[in-house]
């Protein structure tokens, strides 16, 4: 017979939900809130289950979300012919860039300097 150690019973982590939340890049605090526990509790329970803690779990499962996003971008660009997405992907993966044209500045030898001086009457010494 197991001896009761006392304290609150351990909360189980719903790894199915947690994996899906990591895939859409939810923060640890957001995941914990959805799972109805404190972040420290979530992290401790992930460690206790042999998954290395939240940050390790997140790194492993967030890649699924990145892959899905990349797939959607390529589908949007290639299959649907989205010109802005094609341009963006070309810049990201093919090193393409917008053509920049240098506009030469015109230099002029005829520069005019203007000095403005307040005109005052000779008998008007205080300016009023």
Briefly, what is this?
By secondary structure, the chain is mainly alpha-helical.
Please give the structural blueprint:
Layout (H helix, E strand, L loop, with lengths): L14 H9 L4 H7 L4 H10 L5 H26 L3 H11 L35
Shape: elongated
Stretches where pLDDT falls below 50 for ≥5 residues? none
The percent range for strand residues is under 5%
The rounded Rg comes to: 33 Å
Structural class: mainly alpha
Biggest β-sheet description: none
Q: N-to-C terminal Cα separation, in Å?
A: 105 Å
SSE series: HHHHH
Query: What is the tally of helical segments?
Result: 5
Number of strands: 0
Report the average pLDDT across residues.
85
- The amount of helix comes to 40-55%
For the structure shown, list the relevant keywords.
mainly alpha; about 130 residues; about 50% helix
What can you tell me about this protein's structure?
The chain is mainly α and 128 residues long. It has a domain at 15-93. It contains 5 helices and no strands. The protein has helices at 15-23, 28-34, 39-48, 54-79, 83-93.
